[in-house]
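### Sample
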Amino acid sequence: MTGQTPDHQIAVSFELFPPKTEAGMKTLARTVDHLEAAAPEYFSVTYGAGGSTRDRTAKVVDMVGGRTGLPVAHHLTCVGASRAQIDEQAKELWASGIRKIVALRGDLPEGESLAEDGYHDAAELVAGLRNVADFDISVAAYPEVHPEAASAQSDLDHLKRKLDAGASRAITQYAFDTDTVLRFIDRARDAGITAPIVPGIMPVANFASLKRFSQGCGASIPDWMEEMFAGLDETPEMRAMVATSVATQQCQRLMAAGVDAFHIYTLNKPDVSLAICRALGLPVRAETECAA
């Protein structure tokens, strides 16, 4: 058992990343309009290494909130700033109406370290944000263990510290082996973690790119996925159908075990994410499916 509540209406949230160009922003605005049809609980917007996308992240957060009227979670990291600078940014976010934060240590640029006068991990960041305002804070969890963790147990201990510091929930890194996700949730419950654990779902948009990215974040690619997606990067329509099926089946297994919320890494593409939501029984309007 996962310790999560079965038989509830499922909830979804969608993660976006800030585009680099104005043309990309216009495309993302259309994507947001389509994704809104699935009635997500909220959107979240990522934050580049060292705060490299700070202005673009803020712009996307404003755009999404303005177009949908839905809550938007602003990612924040410990990288590239002092505690005072991060606290000031958090105060500005609160003043602008942002109530949700995804708090992360963040990826360090090669050869750099965290500022001596900064937050040194996500648990410290959560505690600092709690001192600024009553944010609704999400943190990251790693079913396959964070690549820098000394062990699975130390990784789980750190997750508990983040939640004990004041985070409301954990969102997992994607993991394609559903048994791995379920075992992780069980281990977390056995460790005394009672906060919601929301599985992150990664629809396959390009398999070759996914493999490269997964190597850096410690997410494994099962052999069956290698076989299933072989050659499909050249046939995107079939790849999208297979990706929808794979993600839907994973969500259905998790739902059968009591999971009732999912965080979908959309990669700024609406079609497969919406198809997954429709397959899971969410009332997505038909005209929004297969959106351009």
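The longest helix spans residues 236-256. This sample (Methylenetetrahydrofolate reductase) is used throughout the tutorial notebook.
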